[in-house]
């Protein structure tokens, strides 16, 4: 069976197999995990980082600022079908050449989407989110600089222990081949993520691995270490390393290795994907 079809089948069957995986005694508490946060809330990490390349000499042109703004809106306090809650999501990631003389924005990537999220508990009261989302990602430019694609994505994210959160996400890409020749080769068909609380509430580490369709060269790895200086404040000092392809859409075919330092705001609860 083709990898895309196999991944789609696995995730869909896992979300739907209530009788085998759901702890029926805690199903409503799982829904409360979404309802206890505000309907408008953070989606992914919100950060402001500055950094330099590790695979070439540092100049004013290749040192930059990278920042991300990400939020979500829950559309209902009750599930609409099969225990799924509807969401609108939006993430914007920017690359700012702040050290260049005119300080231009090299690239801005826009990622709106709609999602259905199903909270449940696996055996052992392990909180898990299953989601289905339809997303668009583009850089808002035209002509030869246009980069755009759409995806139908499926994900599972689970708190497998008090310190570990792991996730698996797959997508069926819909790509404009005129604007993005071979984009699928670099974005691949899925990613795996993990987060570990080294010192709960103070020090953590995250990793996201994406495999392209190439045998060796394509794909990416992003890792970061987060330190929370004040327990009562929700911001972290973060050291992030990205290596691989598709950090930005405009240069998706270029291999990058960037080390960045800055601040990140994290969702108070486990993110939905």
TrEMBL record:
EC number: 3.1.1.32, 3.1.1.4
Catalytic activity: a 1,2-diacyl-sn-glycero-3-phosphocholine + H2O = a 1-acyl-sn-glycero-3-phosphocholine + a fatty acid + H(+); a 1,2-diacyl-sn-glycero-3-phosphocholine + H2O = a 2-acyl-sn-glycero-3-phosphocholine + a fatty acid + H(+)
Principal place of residence: membrane
Highest taxon of the lineage: Bacteria
Localisation: Cell outer membrane
MF-aspect GO terms: metal ion binding; phospholipase A1 activity; phospholipase A2 activity
Protein name listed in UniProt: Phosphatidylcholine 1-acylhydrolase
Organism: Flavobacterium macacae
Classification of source organism: Bacteria, Pseudomonadati, Bacteroidota, Flavobacteriia, Flavobacteriales
């Amino acid at each position: 069976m083709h990898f895309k079809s196999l991944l789609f089948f696995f995730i869909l069957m896992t979300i739907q197999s209530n009788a085998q995986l759901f702890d029926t005694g805690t199903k409503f508490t799982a829904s409360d995990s979404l309802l206890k946060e505000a309907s408008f809330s953070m989606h992914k990490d919100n950060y402001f980082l500055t950094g330099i390349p590790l695979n070439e000499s540092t100049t004013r042109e290749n040192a930059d600022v990278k920042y991300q703004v990400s939020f979500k809106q829950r559309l209902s306090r009750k599930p609409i079908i099969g225990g799924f809650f509807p969401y609108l999501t939006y993430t914007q990631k920017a690359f700012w050449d702040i050290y260049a003389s005119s300080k231009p924005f090299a690239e801005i990537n826009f990622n709106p989407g709609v999602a259905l999220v199903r909270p449940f508990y696996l055996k052992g009261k392990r909180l898990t989110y299953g989601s289905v989302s339809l997303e668009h990602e583009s850089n808002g430019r035209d002509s030869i600089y246009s980069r755009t694609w759409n995806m139908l994505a499926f994900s599972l994210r689970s708190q497998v222990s008090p310190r570990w959160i792991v996730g698996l996400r797959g997508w069926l890409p819909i790509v404009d081949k005129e604007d993005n020749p071979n984009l699928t080769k670099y974005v691949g068909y899925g990613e795996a993520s993990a987060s570990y609380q080294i010192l709960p509430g103070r020090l953590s580490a995250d990793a996201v691995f994406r495999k392209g369709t190439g045998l060796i060269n394509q794909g990416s790895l992003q890792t970061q270490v987060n330190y929370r200086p004040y327990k009562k404040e929700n911001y972290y000092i973060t050291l992030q390393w990205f290596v691989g392809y598709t950090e930005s859409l405009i240069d998706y075919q270029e291999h990058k290795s960037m080390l960045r330092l800055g601040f990140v705001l994290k969702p108070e609860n486990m993110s939905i994907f």
